[in-house]
Amino acid sequence: MEQQQGEHHEHEHHLHLPHGPSEPTHHEEHIVSPKVYLIIGTCLLILTATTTAVSYIELGAFNAVVAILIACIKMTLVILFFMHVKYSSGLTKLTVAAGFFTFIVLITMTMTDYMSRAWGRW
Amino acid sequence: MSTIVSLPDQSTARLPKVSYLNKEYGLKSWLLTGDHKRIAVLYMISITFFFFIGGAMAALIRMELLTPPSDLLAADTYNKVFTAHGLIMVFFFLVPSVPATIGNFLIPIMVGAKDLAFPKINLLSWYLYIVAGTMMIGVLAFGGVDTGWTFTTPLSTHYLNTHVVSAGLAVFVAGFSSIFTGLNFIVTIHRMRAPGMTWFRLPLFVWSHYAASILMVLGTPVLAITLVLVVLERTIGIGVFDPTKGGDPLLFQHLFWFYSHPAVYIMILPGMGVISEVISTFSRKRVFGYTAVAFSSVAIAVFGFFVWAHHMFVMGISNYSALVFSLLTMLVAVPSAIKIFNWSATLYKGSITFETPMLYAFGFLGLFTIGGLTGVFLGSLGMDIHLTETYFIVAHFHFVMVGGMLMAYLSGVHFWWPKITGRMYPEGVSKLAAVITFVGFVLTFFPQFILGYLGMPRRYAAYPPEFQVLNVFSSAGASVLGVGYLLPLLYLTWSLKYGKIAGPNPWQATGLEWQIQSPPLTENFAETPIVTHEAYDYEWLESQKPSEVPTVG
Amino acid sequence: MDSQTLAAQTAETGHIGHGEHPPYLRHHFENAPQQREAATFGMWLFLLTEIMFFGGLFCAYLIFRNWYYPAFVAGSHTLHIWAGTLNTTLLIISSFTMAMAVHAAETRMRKAIMGWMIVTIILGCGFLCVKAYEWHDEWVDHHVPGLNFSPESFLHGSKAYPDDKLSLDMAEKTQLYYSLYFAMTGMHALHMIIGVSLLTILLIQVYGGKYVNGHVAPIENFGLYWHFVDIVWIFLFPLLYLISRHQ
After folding, report:
1. Chains with ≥3 Cβ pairs under 8 A against C?
2. How buried is residue B490: exposed, middle or buried, by Cβ count under 10 Å (0-12/13-18/19+)?
3. Residue C10: what pLDDT?
4. Which of C3, C7, C85 is the closest to A48 by Cβ?
5. Residue B238 is nearest to which of C48, C59, C183, comparing CB atoms?
6. Which of B191, B223, B324 best tests the A interface by mutation, with the highest count of A CBs <10 A?
7. Of B210, B418, B497, B514, which sits with the fewest C-beta atoms within 10 Å of its C-beta?
8. Could you say which DSSP state residue C17 is in?
9. Interface of A with C in 67-106 (CB under 8 A)
């Protein structure tokens, strides 16, 4: 049984080598500047103060909505900038989206049971 | 009968001098290996061990059910036996069966890589499996657990004094074993494909494992947190599942089945991948509708997350919610049916031969279809009220899991045995075993559909005398089935020493794994393959025949 | 890519220390960027499992908050808002310092990496200390479910929130609030402890010279884990501490 020779191997690569579909995307090598981190960090601290302050204002059912909304904004800032997703490949973005999607499915579809238990008997 | 088997001349053929099996010797080189192929072999040995323990539990069940009264086993003991059977078979056999053995072995080779993305995590996955398995054996040895494999609350949290916590923790650890396997597969398939190996040139085996891996990664953690909550409920009494404290036992079921329904797709998808490969090879034809089969795997994975409450129709969920889940359950059957249609179309006008892997594949086609269809019956609310918690359910899931998945596993083991070991299994006795298995299976489980329809409840040690005849048929079938499963254990072990030398491609199959030596080198490929042909390209295969496969020694 | 570099890349004749073939390259990968991307992708997938793991707890929380809202309000009022806000601040700053540590690794500044990592560890430990103090308080107040729980304090209402006087039935439901409080913050704290421990190990390795020569993936990927744990807390804070504070 033969084994491929080294020279034959190198000769083959003189010709046009097709790029592997799993070729690195080089997205990870983008370096985010400290200034961006500082701005985002400050925003997060401001939002924290905001959410605490707003919780003392009477908004009825909207208290919960506002609190979750502010938390979602903070989360988005952390994900996009601290976790570099803004500068990452499409695959990373898709992965994050898939995680959220499954989480939402768990919460909402379970809630369909709990919310509809009290509805009219049939 | 014709055959496509093409072996090298046995008088001169030898196993390759260097392969992953003999590259290093010694226990340490196996227990500390990073080689995905060695880890696959470790898994294969371990899951076979657990399969026979689970099988022993099944034997006890069927022996007890020979007679109406609970005479062989007391009711409590019977509960422990079927719980052990379920836990072991689901978590320690079915979930890892194809992915951790055949998948681990083949995924890197099929994509053209030297190993999985994270070899150390692969090894960790096996160790977690062993730890979990040891914990489970310990649970059985110290008195068992009698909740059923589903740990339903409040029985498991408030009314039993058996080893629920330990069993829950064992399953928790096993879950992480599964997560790490899936994680490894996803990264490898995305990031380590060889030049020219585009997504749509991948074998369908890879697509099914990709879909199953998504389920493993996204679904299993919910099982983990559920078990944590059960442990906390039992030990501290936190109250989340306790009605007297305001909790809801049904919350457990929502969280449990959120994993456990996708779990059944984790179990079956890899098996479907095997069937795609086997049917194509033994019909000498590309799989009909490659794109449809590939996308249907992903569709099963996605839709599989939307249907879990069909296990809870009679448990107290609202009727409106039950309606929604029932409708979605009808939809999830569609991608599975698409696969059956495509495989049938692959067979049509193919050059079919009946080697052992193909016999198992035919068994799969028939039995999985019946199992799947009965699943649709169960998904319709009206039928489920009558059939749930009866032997109809038991028959349904054994048809898909044993008639489907286990047959697919055996098909795959036989199909890739020559690649893994370098040797052929004995074809005559293996065909016999396949037929015995099929006959035994039908005799065991078909009567259970009738029993269930007539109203015999599941998980009962005693039953009314009018059900005895069908139960006796079922138990008789079980003994035949046992023989059918014992035979491969014997002849496959025999073949390790005395089997014919297989050569690189005894089945004349397409796929990268058949273009390398049997057994493969540790690094799989002498040099990185460059893929220029489509999947199941039998014309390309014809042009490859004259050239030699690089083999060492 | 010229054939010279390619030949060096695919050669298996040993470490060359070439741009694409550095010493930390594992041999089942073709090149360093592939290894780095695979590692990052793997960490993201692991974080997905963590989202679903915590997801079960959030699901339980949603249901019981819906069913026993007055009990959840009363329970939330017993938490120290200063502690929660302080902890949130500590974690946000620690996310900033961790991001800076990753930046230092990317720009290969060893002393800076170590400095930022040390600050992150200190902030993480600070968080855990505040948490421990809070939990001690719950224990003293008999608010630990299953172990020493008593609904007594909720039958009378508190000084700050006199409307928190609950019927016995609803007062008993506060145990569920505390169950979820301890389960969620406990699980979060466990992840913090693991994070601080791993970060300490990484710090020692950086001290020994690792991760300063372009091999940034472990620092980056640990950073992803740390930020994720921060995000969990970003949700725990309003859900547990800020329920209807205006009353």
Report:
1. A, B
2. exposed
3. 46
4. C85
5. C183
6. B191
7. B497
8. -
9. 67-68, 70-71, 74-75, 78-79, 81-84, 88-89, 91-92, 95-96, 98-100, 102-103, 106
State the Cα–Cα distance between residues B372 and B151, nearest whole angstrom. Answer: 25
> In the block, which residue shows the tokens 């697509």?
B207
Q: Do A18 and B305 touch (CB under 8 A)?
A: no
Would B8 be classed as within a structural domain? no
**How does the average pLDDT of chain B come out, rounded?**
95
ipTM greater than cut 0.90: yes
**Together in a domain, C180 and C213:** yes
Domain that holds residue A41: 31-82
- In this prediction, residue C246 carries a pLDDT of 77
Looking at CA atoms only, how far is residue A87 from chain B in angstroms? 18
- Reading the block at residue B56, the tokens are 């022993």
Q: A35 and A76 in one domain?
A: yes
Q: What percent of chain B has pLDDT over 70?
A: 99
Structure tokens at C139: 């224990």
Q: Considering only alpha carbons, which residue of chain A is nearest residue B325?
A: A109
Residue located via tokens 């915590």: C54
- A92 lies in the same domain as A108: yes
CA B344 to chain CA centroid, Å, is 22
Nearest to C85 by CA among C130, C34, C29: C130
Given a contact as 3+ CB pairs under 8 Å, which chains touch A?
B, C
Bridge partners (DSSP) listed for residue B524: B521
CB contact under 8 A, C63 and B191: no
**Cβ pair A25:C37 closer than 8 A:** yes
Arithmetic mean of pLDDT over chain A: 83
Please work out, in degrees rounded to the nearest 5, the angle formed at the alpha carbon of residue B26 by the alpha carbons of B23 and B28: 105
Residues C6 and C74 in one domain: no
Helix, strand, or coil (residue B473) = helix
Confidence of residue C16 (pLDDT cuts 50, 70, 90): very low
Name the strand (E) or helix (H) holding C145: none
Give yes or no for residue B445 having a pLDDT over 60. Answer: yes
Q: State the amino acid at position A108 in one-letter form.
A: T
pLDDT of A34 higher than 60: yes
Tens-place pLDDT, residues C220-237 = 999 999 999 999 999 999
Q: Are residues A77 and A93 in the same domain?
A: no
- CB-based contact (8 Å) between A117 and chain B? yes
CB contact under 8 A, B218 and A91: no
Q: What is the pLDDT of residue A13?
A: 41
Asked whether residue B252 is assigned to any structural domain, the reply reads yes
Report the CATH number at residue C80: 1.20.120.80
Task: Compare C19 and B356 and report the one with higher pLDDT.
Answer: B356
* Residue B330 placed within a domain: yes
Residue B324 has its nearest CB partner, among A20, A105, A112, at A112
User: Could you give the angle at which helices B356-379 and B319-347 cross, rounded to 10 degrees?
Assistant: 150
Can you tell me the mean pLDDT for B469-479? 97
Domain that holds residue C59: 32-241
The tokens for C133 are: 């103090």
Tens of pLDDT, residue by residue over C148-182, are: 888 888 888 777 787 778 899 999 999 999 999 99
Nearest-neighbour CA in chain C from A2: distance (Å): 19
- pLDDT at residue B69 is higher than 50: yes
A46 is a domain residue: yes
- Name the pLDDT band for B517 (thresholds 50, 70, 90): very high
Residue B187 has pLDDT above 70, yes or no: yes
- In the block, residue with structure tokens 């099914």: B208
Interfacial A residues in 26-55 facing C (CB < 8 Å):
26-29, 31-34, 37-38, 40-41, 44-45, 48-49, 51-52, 55
Q: Is residue A15 pLDDT above 60, yes or no?
A: no
Of residues A12 and B280, the one with the higher pLDDT is: B280
Return the sign of the alpha-carbon dihedral for residues C174, C175, C179, C185.
positive
Q: Is residue B16 part of a domain?
A: no
Confidence band of A122 (pLDDT split at 50, 70, 90): low
pLDDT score for B547: 59
From B221's Cα to the closest Cα of chain C, the distance in A is 5
Contact B217/C179, CB-based, under 8 Å?
A: no
Domain carrying residue B303: 27-544
